[in-house]
Every structure is written in structure tokens, then in C-alpha cells.
Amino acid sequence: MAEWRWEYDPTADHVIGGLDDLAFIARVEETADELVRAAAAQFLDGSLYRGTSPKASEEVIPGGMFLHQVIPRHQCVYILQVTLAPH
Fold this sequence. Notes:
Low-confidence stretches: none
Distance between the termini: 44 Å
Strand order of the largest sheet: 1-4-3-2
């Protein structure tokens, strides 16, 4: 059984390239770790899951928000878009 993980989709450069707020990026990645733990608990062996994947969701965190998609069959949480809050 593969381990659950998260990754930027399609690439980190595409999703967070140009963002220079390292503390905000760290909050995104910490929250992504939490989402992975939650997905792993909900879909114990995601590779065997045959239902519809959950809809994309947004997480609002201090400093902005990000859009993510859980794909149980991939055992992955994909970070699709990261947005800084206007100052």
C-alpha cells in the first residue's frame, strides 16, 4: 500500500512560483500535511477506492488561501492554486 502524500499540480513552480512569502508557503504546506492525514484516515486504502473523488475545496489560512483536490486512487492531495490575501 502506497503512502498518502501531497504535491503541487502541475508543478511547484507553476503553483507557487514567484511567491516570496516563505512563511505563507510554509502554512500552505503544513495545512497540506494535515489534509493528507485526514484523507488517509477517511480513505484507508485509497488505491482500492472506486467512488467519485471529492470536489476541489479551498482552505483559508492566515495570509491567503489555496485550492486543493483529493484523489483517493492516487492517494494524493493536489495543491492546485495558491493565493495571497491583498495587503
